[in-house]
Amino acid sequence: MEEMRRATVSRPVCPDPFLQRVAANMIGDLPVPFDRECPPGLARQAIHELGPEGIPGIASIALDVQLLRDAGDLRMPEPLGQERASALGMAYRTARDDWGRPVVLVTCLTGLRD
Q1: DSSP secondary structure string, the chain?
Q2: Which of 49, 81, 51 has its CA nearest to residue 64?
Q3: pTM, to two decimals
Q4: Could you report the per-residue pLDDT of 44-61, keeping only the tens digit for each?
Q5: Domains in the chain, number
Q6: 84: domain range?
Q7: What pLDDT, in 10s, does the model give residues 4-47?
Q8: Contacts of residue 52, Cβ cutoff 8 Å, sequence gap at least 6
Q9: For the domain that residue 30 is a member of, what is the CATH number?
């Protein structure tokens, strides 16, 4: 993800252990096949886990969820391409779709500065 970002934005983004943990907690709740109604619930879960204090220096968190048939299809989430992006937490898990084919679920939480 950092290589994709460097191609468009000069400022690096730092992996954040807290966002990483929240992304990892969320990935287990994603159903396969992926239900497009899940992201609002996942966003609420992330807000709950972040708590009222949030993360110092982070004004908002953007959530991106991808269901991939091939890991090479991973795309950079739009918020990660912004200059305001400063922190990143990602998690993935493998699963099988309705036809038994392997898929990869990916969650990405991008922390955006003020």
Answers
A1: -HHHHHTT-SS--EE-HHHHHHHHHHHTT--SSPPTTHHHHHHHHHHHHHTTT--TT--EEEEEEEEESSGGG----GGGGSTTEEEEEEEEEEEE-TTS-EEEEEEEEEEE--
A2: 81
A3: 0.80
A4: 777 777 766 777 778 888
A5: 1
A6: 2-112
A7: 666 665 577 888 998 998 899 888 877 777 666 666 666 677 77
A8: none
A9: 3.40.33
Q: Is 88 exposed, middle or buried (0-12, 13-18, 19+ CB in 10 A)?
A: buried
Instruction: Quote the CA–CA distance of 33 and 48 in Å, as a whole number.
Output: 25
113 with 60: CB under 8 angstroms?
Answer: no
Tokens representing residue 88 in the block:
């990143």
22-35 b/e (C-beta count within 10 Å ≥ 16 → b): bbeebbeebeeebe
Convert the pLDDT of each residue in 105-114 to its tens digit: 998 999 888 7
